[in-house]
Amino acid sequence: MTNMKRRTLLKGSLAAGAVGVAVGSGLLAPRTVLAAWPKEAFEANSVDSALNSLMGQSQLEGSDKIEIKAPDIAENGAVVPVSVETSIDDVESISIVAEKNNTPLTSAYVMSPRAEGFVATRIKMSETSSVIAVVKAGGSLYSTGKEVKVTIGGCGG
Amino acid sequence: MANTIKIRARVSGDTTTVKALISHPMETGLRKNSKTGEKIPAHFIQEVVCEHKGDAVLTAQWGPAISKNPYLSFRFKGAAKGDTLTLRWVDNKGESDSIETQIA
């Protein structure tokens, strides 16, 4: 019983700490990095520079062939379910970007020719912003955005 | 770091749907320990690879903005029931894990 209480307390204090840091800090901690991992893209502070670093271009063409599923209002920015589905052919990669995170690029998915244009995950968002799905196909970038309102920020660095 | 991955793969027609849950703290490196004020070092998965018959059908590159205990789902074509699917991850500390599953 004592142990249970301790855990709840610990959880609570951790969560409070997370919000404070998300608001107050734009710093990045040093990281050891794999050769293939696109470090610069993940550490870029704007959508354009992240996409440029990741794919050598940042010009986005709006597309109605991409659908983003994400909640209109996310109560907890630490866990925002996002899924991206596209009917564009020959998708090379899908990237999920949270526009106002300190480092907007959350993840990139490199698809083999056998993969279908679908990916689902859960991302952290520091504040209310647009979630952008960027689909690379045939050398061009296509995108669709969806506004997600975040009530409690989730340490989105 | 054994058994950090839970995975389901199910084939319907020609399409296999894969759902995976990984136990991982996914620390951004931005949080502080509220008691000591020290920063909690970044610790997050950077790459997840899913292979079918030696072919990497999906390679996920993750930053710290993927939620704790990450969830990943995707679909691909060309697998049959009973085929083996391998999923592995590597994090920024070089820790890793992998799992094999049979497609149902």
How far do the termini of chain B sit from each other? 26 Å
The rounded Rg of chain B comes to: 16 Å
Structural class label of chain A: alpha+beta
CATH superfamily of chain A: SoxY domain
Please report the first level of CATH classification, the CATH class of chain A: Mainly Beta
CATH-assigned fold name of chain B = Immunoglobulin-like
Distance between the termini of chain A: 35 Å
Unreliable spans of chain B: none
Structural class based on helices, strands and sheet pairing of chain B = mainly beta
Concise account of the structure shown:
The complex is a heterodimer of chains A (157) and B (104). Chain A is an alpha+beta fold and 157 residues long.
Layout of secondary structure:
The complex is a heterodimer of chains A (157) and B (104).
Chain A: H1 2-24, H2 39-43, H3 47-55, E1 60-62, E2 66-69, E3 73-76, E4 80-86, E5 91-98, E6 105-111, E7 115-123, E8 129-137, E9 140-152
Parallel strand pairs in A: 1-9, 3-9
Antiparallel strand pairs in A: 2-4, 4-7, 5-6, 5-8, 8-9
Chain B: E1 5-12, E2 15-22, E3 45-52, E4 55-62, E5 71-77, E6 84-91, E7 96-102
Antiparallel strand pairs in B: 1-2, 2-5, 3-4, 3-6, 6-7
Notable features of this structure?
heterodimer, A: 157 residues, alpha+beta, Immunoglobulin-like, 6-stranded mixed sheet, 3-stranded antiparallel sheet, 9 strands, 24% helix, B: 104 residues, mainly beta, 4-stranded antiparallel sheet, SoxY_sf (chain A)
Structural commentary:
By secondary structure, chain A is an alpha+beta fold. Chain A has one domain (35-152): SoxY domain (Immunoglobulin-like, Sandwich), CATH 2.60.40.2470. Chain A is 24% helix and 41% strand. Chain A has helices spanning 2-24, 39-43, 47-55, and strands at residues 60-62, 66-69, 73-76, 80-86, 91-98, 105-111, 115-123, 129-137, 140-152. The model of chain A is unreliable at 18-35 (pLDDT under 50). Chain B has 104 residues and is mainly beta. Chain B has one domain (5-102): Immunoglobulin-like. Chain B is built from no helices and 7 strands. Chain B has strands spanning 5-12, 15-22, 45-52, 55-62, 71-77, 84-91, 96-102. In chain B, the strands form 2 sheets. Chain B has a 4-stranded antiparallel β-sheet with strand order 4-3-6-7, with no helix packed on it. In chain B, strands 1-2-5 form a 3-stranded antiparallel β-sheet, with no helix packed on it. Chain B is elongated. In chain B, 38% of the residues are buried. Chains A and B meet through helix 1, strand 4, strand 6 and strand 7 of A and strand 3, strand 4 and strand 5 of B.
